[in-house]
Every structure is written in C-alpha cells, then in structure tokens.
C-alpha cells in the first residue's frame, strides 16, 4: 500500500481468490477438531438450540452484564430467563459475584470469552459442578484462542463459536458438545445460495480494495453499484451477518458448504501467529498514548482486535473511518433485561472501549501506518479546541 493512497483497513479479514480452490488442511483447533459439532449460519442459532437441547426453558441462565444483546435475545426467545453478573473494567468476570447470584432457579452458567482473551473458565466450571448445572462457553469472539494449552470452548458442557468474525467466510457458527453425553442434533439445511454468493463476492471485493489501492477501490465501487442493482431487481434474499438482533426466521439456517470448504482450507496456526504479531505491533506503538485494556498477550490468545480505552469514542471512530480504518464500536448497549445502574463498570466499558483491527490480512507495514493514524487521532482528541480558548 502506498502512503499516498487512502488506507483501506477492514474490520474483518477478506477472502483471497485462491482460498476458493485451496485444499483442506487438518483442523487442529475447535470446532474443526471437535468430534461432536454442528454448524449453523449464525452463532446465535447455536445459543438458541443449546437452551432447547439442555432443556433450560423456564429456568434462569446467569449471564455477564457485558454482552452484545443478540445472545441474550436468543436465550429469551428459546424460553429461558436471563439474570446477570458483574464484569469489571478489564473484562474481568467477578466469580465471587457469580457465586452469590446462583439460586435454586439458576439452571446454567454462561461465560463469554471477550475478543480472544480467556475468561475464568476453570473457576466457572468448578461453580457449575458444585451446583450441578451446565456451563455454556461463548467463544463467538474467540475462535482459535486457547487458555495456555487448553483451547477455549472445550471446558464447558457446550462451546459456541462464530466463524465469520475471524475467518474470511460468508457465514458460519458452531455448537460443540463436550463430555461423554451425546445429543441427537439435527443437521440444519443450507442457507439460500444467492445469499452465500452475495457475501462471498463482497469479501472478494474487499480483498481487491485491500491489495489494489485506488484502482481496487474504484473496481470495488463499480462492481458493488452493479451488484446492488442486480440483487434488487432479482429480489434476492440476503441474510445479513453482523446484524444486531436475533431473528427466529433464521434459527434453522445451517452453514453453507462453501463456508466449510473455505474454513477447512485455512492455515489456522499462521492466522493465530499473524494476529498476535499485529497485536504486539499496536501495543508497542500505542500504549504510551492510550492505556490498552491488556498490557500483555498471554500464551494461546488469538486476539480478535486490539482494544483500548479512549475518552471520546464517537469522535475517534469518525476520525479513523475518515482515514479508511474500520475501527470497531464494541457492544454499546445493554439488553433491556439488564439494569445498567446495577453495573457501572460495564456502562463505563460501553462508553470507552474502542477496537482497532489486527487480523491476519494486515501486514506489518499496514499495521505501522494504522498505528501512526491512531496516534495522531488520539493526540488531536486531547488538544483543546480553538473555540474553547
């Protein structure tokens, strides 16, 4: 990428054309290494089915107050009642608070691993066993991550994964059942072919812009304008990923065969290595101007992005996107069932955490340019405005 070009740094990895025909590799990490896995269009579908499968309908599920909201919606739609526990200012689950909130009505514990960083899964496993209830491990943001040598999603009774946040695939979520007990899970039907094709083309076009600079950007814009008109004229149903809410109409949708093909062709170890390298590059260049949420990267962690604490998130988002960096605004809102006044640390997290892409598509050169842009944006955020003087 030339420094004179406008940057294009997408929030998620893009699809390289060669990946469409690459041979499969043995999957050494879950869910690909798991013998008892079912694949879905969305991870939220796996959440819904988990509630039904474990017969948690009518019971209470103890969930973190720091949540996206769509997983809570899936729990509610499946017939369970969410209750919430405290998460601290560093994404640290308050296990003592979890223990205090368990009642005879609690039917399951729900743990989210945030952005690849492990939560206290062993302590939560111990609590669940003491009370004779299952532990649900939500790894939607932590595909390919491990807690030391233990892959995330293998300690709980159920592990839930999202594929398209980490891998360049058009859709995909997974449910893994751990332990000796087996469940008869139906194989969900494939999603509409046109929807999968639309997402695949979009990922290929993003890759074209990422590698082609101004020329790639122009070609992507041209193809997108033609494609949008074609989709509209043909009334193609496009089941969007990245949506904010659970939709019962899509609960039975499975993962497309193309997604599985692309996913199984990925070099998972290289992806983890690239993400860790990019995280360390950002950490070294940015920690003196903005406190990182994590000042180190524990062994086994495959970071989804680089989270940092900022003062004016909306201003910084606008500045970075203006420069072509698709920074991420992580989980702005509480689900209505959760009282924000009860969890001030979580409310603070929602106001102040901004995430910078560090995925495997981004070279060290690009990460250096990203760090420069972020540093300048952070410095301008702290300068007093001329109008104020």
From TrEMBL:
The reply on keyword Mitochondrion is no
Organism superkingdom: Bacteria
Recorded GO terms, molecular function?
pyridoxal phosphate binding; transaminase activity
Per its UniProt record, what Pfam families does this chain match?
DegT_DnrJ_EryC1 (PF01041)
Residues annotated as signal peptide: none
**Which key words tag this protein in UniProt?**
Aminotransferase, Pyridoxal phosphate, Transferase
Q: Which GO terms describe its biological process?
A: polysaccharide biosynthetic process
Q: Which InterPro entries match?
A: DegT/StrS_aminotransferase (IPR000653), PyrdxlP-dep_Trfase (IPR015424), PyrdxlP-dep_Trfase_major (IPR015421), PyrdxlP-dep_Trfase_small (IPR015422)
Q: Which family does it belong to?
A: Belongs to the DegT/DnrJ/EryC1 family.
Q: What is this protein called?
A: Aminotransferase DegT
Give the species.
Corallococcus exiguus
